[in-house]
Amino acid sequence: MQISTVGVVGLGTMGAGIAEVFARGGVEVVAVEVDERLLEAGRGRVDKSLHRAVDRGRLDTAEHEQIVSRFRYTVERADLAGCDLVVEAVPERLEIKTSLFGELDGICPPHTVLATNTSSLPVTAIAASTARRGRVVGMHFFNPAPVMRLVEVVRTVVADEDAINAVAELASRCGKTPVVVGDRAGFIANALLFGYLNDAALMAERQHATVAAIDDAMSSGAGLPMGPLALMDMIGLDVCLEVLEVMYDETRDRRYAPAPLLKRLVLAGLLGRKSGRGYYRYDSGDPEPALSFTVSEPVQASLRRGSSYVLETLLYPHLDDAVRMVEDNYATRDDVDTAMRLGCGYPRGPLTMLDEIGPKVVADALVQMGRSPSPLMREM
Ligand SMILES: NC(=O)c1ccc[n+]([C@@H]2O[C@H](COP(=O)([O-])OP(=O)(O)OC[C@H]3O[C@@H](n4cnc5c(N)ncnc54)[C@H](O)[C@@H]3O)[C@@H](O)[C@H]2O)c1
Predict the structure, then answer these.
(1) Per-residue pLDDT tens for 129-180?
(2) C-alpha of residue 11 to centroid of ligand 1, in Å
(3) CB 39 within 8 A of CB 206
(4) Local confidence band at 304 (pLDDT 50, 70, 90 cut-offs)
(5) Residue/partner pairs of 78-82 with CB below 8 Å, 24 or more apart
(6) C-alpha dihedral, 209 to 212 to 215 to 217, nearest 10°
(7) Domains of the chain, with CATH numbers?
(8) What is the DSSP letter of 363?
(9) CB-based contacts of 40: which residues, under 8 Å, 6+ apart?
């Protein structure tokens, strides 16, 4: 099966970017919104992003025209009847997605693959709401979709192999790197990222280090593109809380039990950048840490034990989580490294970092922290 026409439902942050990716990949796009006002807003998002690409010299005017001509904007879902693939990027609520998929199931011909961009809902539950369970897959893009190269292609236990292959082939054709994974909460990238982000939230809450020290250790020290608390503010603290709750619900792993302070920040309406305040304040010039704790004396003593205290306390368990994911046979080490590089912008994947630091150094440090390294880490 070769996909040549794609429908995108929901032209918000993700949908507009996803539609752009397809059109730039040479595919005809049917772009759908719920009403004319939202359709215009969605078209505006796509146009703005394409104009930016022209301004920056990444597209010439002829390419721009061709790309624009591949779009058809509509508020009629029935217009999706001619699509080989429909990808939805509507709000992250199971009832909205299942109701949409039920409707698409009635509109689209039997060969059409229906894909969800969900970050945390079970793709299997969405598939089960249709009569074509084998042709429902996850197609998880990263924000901003035109920039981030990873696409996690989610295979449920009932997925047709040719649907998975066709979606992975399309992602490659559009310049993305597909990684095929099973249907597990958080897939690869979010499952690894959010355990680490929650650890950073707990560290800030326990005042083991200041907000600035935590972010500095992980950006300057570990070379990650952003510190974890600044990243949570960017994602939105409400979204972080929701993802952690879903992950905790499914795994019952304490690593995902949301930091109590994170819940309180959300309750107080401090949602990060979008609300002007989260772990930082964004109201005047450069962001300033908004949690100003005095780091307590015993903790200062532990910090004096080594300047790498924050880095090791956050990074090493994160690397151990990556090893566990390989040990569980959920993903290969290459897939884990690819997902974190191309989905989260890591300069090197966690397993490459582990090789560089040395598994023995990491395992010994984990034991010192009172954590038990994974059996595979001990073996390594
Ligand atoms: N934002 C991210 O960083 C990110 C990253 C990866 C995946 N996702 C997932 O992508 C999906 C969309 O997220 P987003 O951030 O683009 O959201 P968004 O709020 O920006 O966009 C949602 C779109 O859905 C439309 N919509 C609202 N209610 C609808 C309904 N009842 N039926 C159909 N359409 C409706 C809205 O008009 C809007 O354009 C979610 O499942 C989210 O988990 C988001």
Answers:
(1) 999 999 999 999 999 999 999 999 999 999 999 999 999 999 999 999 999 9
(2) 8
(3) no
(4) low
(5) 78/107, 79/7, 79/30, 79/32, 80/7, 80/9, 80/30, 80/32, 80/104, 80/107, 80/108, 81/107, 81/108, 81/109, 82/5, 82/30
(6) -60
(7) 5-182 (3.40.50.720), 189-379 (1.10.1040.50)
(8) H
(9) none
Two structure tokens written together for 90: 């509507």
Query: Which atom of ligand 1 is the closest one to the Cα of 41?
Result: 39
* DSSP code string of 70-89: TEEEES-GGGGGG-SEEEE-
Residue 47 has pLDDT above 90, yes or no: yes
Specify the ligand 1 atom closest to the Cα of 92: 41
pLDDT over 90 (residue 303): no
Q: Which of 33, 117, 120, 140 is catalytic?
A: 140
Sequence letter at residue 215: D
DSSP state of 327: H
Residue 207: pLDDT band (50, 70, 90) is confident
Ligand 1 centroid from CA 7, angstroms:
15
238 lines ligand 1 (CB under 6 A): no
Structure tokens at 132: 């074509």
Which of 98, 119, 153, 194, when mutated, tests ligand 1's pocket best, judged by the most ligand atoms within 8 Å of its CB? 119
